[in-house]
Write a structure and sequence with these properties.
The chain is of the alpha+beta class and 422 residues long. The structure holds adenosine monophosphate (AMP) and glycine (GLY).
Length: 422
């Protein structure tokens, strides 16, 4: 199989690394990729939202399957674009179609879906500028802190958690006035749930699904989960509190009703589905659905997935995922993200990265890297994810940290406490 993988982050390097191990692979292309994916496949320089450019590449390189890393092309309808094109409609794109991707693309859509199918989630109200007064009344009836979410995709910045009621009302008005652009034309106001989060993933052919290893990511920039939100500073798998009893509740109350709900509404969902969960007094609630794998969770999930990923992808394509086997490495995996100085606020790019030759016993998944004059340089806020196995999460974390120390670039920063709360 010739594969085209879309994306350029640590998630995509980890997926590429896993795909490259498959006996079913002929050639692997990644677009746009990064300096890491360039070592295991061929990078193309087409943006993930340039569907015409992707079409040209698919035809030119005789691509058999397209695998989508990030949500953007899914929410913009890349699956439907392929299905409606006479030259592309035999080429499967792994990911949900436009409607199914609304599970991530619209918070209001996913909240309504959960209500219809009795899937546990925070109480909420969706408001627009026409219903602002109802929104304010709903906020007044809630207790602090207040959760405001832009309905649409807002580059991970569309969720605000606010302590004061006055500030929440002010923010609600600003969101409806366009603070997050059209993504905030509808705002979902939610009850705040206090608990511990975890990410659960399935791969599905629309009919059957397989559970992948769960993970927990660490979003704040500072140790002890302090400071600004980032795209993710590290991740661990397995997650100690996601034990048999908890996971059975997740299956019975969340995954199965979600699959049944999608089917009953004739929404054909294929690809990866990510359940962002929170455990409140031992009960799982859905914080959000994502139409893709998580980042940096994929950097630990792929380490623990022993099954051939392209075998599973074939199951998605052929609708016989039920016949495939998921084999999971019992070891722990921890990834530590190296980030640029200043991130998640302003940071500089183009810093030369050295020390790759000193890495031993860890996997280096590149995120924001590229080449400049034959050198690997930083090209984003999150630069690379150092990922390791261990017989315990602490051992895996120590191993990732020891190797993280070996990589140098100006301004390099990473958290040393990934997994601290488990
Ligand atoms: P989301 O983009 O929906 O994942 O939200 C970003 C983060 O905000 C989540 O990972 C949670 O940490 C937090 N969050 C979102 N909704 C809630 C909620 N209802 N209660 C508590 N925390 C929340
Ligand atoms: N790590 C969370 C996400 O990928 O959305």
């Amino acid at each position: 199989m010739n594969i085209l993988l879309l994306g350029s982050g640590g998630r995509e390097h980890a997926l590429a690394w896993k795909i490259a191990q498959s006996s079913l692979l002929s050639k692997l292309f990644i677009t746009p990729g990064n300096a890491g994916t360039a070592t295991i496949g061929t990078n193309l320089s087409i943006s993930v939202n340039d569907f015409d450019g992707i079409k040209k590449a698919v035809l030119e390189y005789a691509i058999d399957v397209v695998i989508v890393g990030p949500e953007d092309p899914l929410v913009h309808g890349i699956v439907d674009f392929f299905e409606s094109d006479a030259l592309l409609n035999k080429i499967p794109v792994i990911g949900p179609n436009l409607i199914a991707a609304q599970m991530e693309g619209s918070k209001d859509f996913s909240k309504q879906f959960m209500m219809r199918h009795d899937i546990p989630t925070a109480r909420y109200k969706s408001v627009t500028s026409n219903t602002l007064s109802e929104g304010i009344a709903f906020l007044k009836a809630l207790k602090a802190p207040y959760v405001l979410k832009a309905d649409g995709l807002a580059s991970g910045k569309g969720v605000l958690i606010i302590n004061s009621l006055d500030e929440a009302i002010e923010e609600l008005k600003q969101m409806l006035e366009g603070k997050f652009g059209a993504a905030g034309n509808t705002v979902v106001i939610e009850e705040f749930l206090a608990g511990i989060e975890c990410s659960v993933f399935i791969i599905t052919d629309g009919e059957h699904y397989k559970l992948l290893p769960e993970a927990k990511d660490y979003k704040r920039i500072g140790e002890g989960d302090k400071g600004l939100n980032t795209g993710g500073m590290g991740a661990v798998s397995p997650v100690s509190f996601a034990d048999k009893v908890f996971m059975q509740k997740v299956i019975d109350r969340i995954i199965e009703p979600t699959m049944a709900g999608l089917k009953s509404e004739n929404i054909v969902y294929k690809g990866f589905l990510f359940f962002g969960l929170i455990k409140v007094e031992n009960e799982p609630y859905v914080i959000e659905y994502n139409a893709r794998m998580g980042d940096p969770e994929t950097e630990v999930v792929m380490l623990r997935l022993q099954s051939d990923l392209l075998e599973l992808i074939q199951g998605v394509i052929n609708g016989n995922l039920n016949e495939k086997e998921i084999i999971i490495d019992p070891r722990h995996a921890v990834t530590v993200m190296l980030v640029s100085g200043g991130y998640p606020e302003a940071y500089e790019k183009g810093k030369v990265i050295t020390g790759f030759d000193k890495i031993s016993g860890s996997y280096v998944f590149h995120a924001g890297t590229t080449f400049a004059n034959d050198k690997v340089v930083t090209n984003g806020g999150r630069v690379m994810a150092i990922s390791s196995y261990g017989t315990s999460k602490d051992e895996a974390c120590r191993q990732s940290l020891a190797n993280a120390e070996q990589i140098t670039f100006e301004g390099n920063y990473f958290r040393r406490d990934i997994g601290f709360d488990l």
